[in-house]
Sequence to fold (317 residues):
Amino acid sequence: MAAPDLKPSFVYVTYIAAPAEKVWRALTDGDFTRQYFFGRRMQSDWTVGAGWALLMDDGRVDSGGKVLECEPPRRLAISWRVEWLEEFRTLPEAIVTFDIEPMGEVVRLTVTQLTGPIDEKYLEGGRRGWPVILSGLKSLLETGKPLKIPTPSAGTPKT
Amino acid sequence: MTKPSFVYVTYIRTSPEQLWQALTDGSLTRQYWAGRRIESDWTMGAPVTFWFDGKVSDSGKVLECDPPRRLSYSFRVEFVEALRSEPPSRVAFEIEKLDAQVKLTVTHDEFEPGSQVFAAISGGWPVILSGLKSLLETGRAIEFPTGSCDARRAKEEA
Fold:
């Protein structure tokens, strides 16, 4: 359950020409996520209360948390803590929900990030990152090919 | 009260020129913009007209036109009686090339507080821009169940 002081800090809606089951798999299967989620592999056994982790190529944990709701292929809610950046580790956990609604041949995917009252600067990365990730997910599912977008924010060496 | 504004970012595997054409050519907008055919000569101050089924659905004027980078026009809903009385808002498209992709940022702002048009466009843009991305990447816009967008619009009108 969401703590009462959590509010949506980011909402993104996209429509994807794919069955709900395929969208679900693309969100929860590490072999899929590494193709569009900045190379990160998503790992969990996807049962309520289980842990999940988003792993970098070298095995480090990018982000992690617990599975709060898991109703394949319709709804997934996870608590979210960014682990790989020191100053994010002490922030209160966010909650991210994925809602998949079939509409004929298409699904509507709504990604919502709920956060407590934290400094706006900690929200910037997510606001920039989610459109890249979700655009790549849509491309992967509709064309079989992910996008190749340079990683925004941290991780991109400034040249 | 702050004035509401809507921002949506999407990344599309296409060129800035092709994206520009998809935004400004009526035979293309018709395929992903809930059947609307856009018409303008795309010069500063020129009228912009959205046609649907022989009627004007929305209208505006070109405010900025810098192909293939930036396009902006004012936007007034004509089709829906309840929304026609609102003052025009502003739509802006910003196109940035990123290797073999483009980043498209759509900003729709200049609404009055409590605008009903704002509520309508907030649901509409993700549909339109998802369809635009699919059209450019796959050659086919997304097919929604018959008239989902217009069915909703018709309901609002009734």
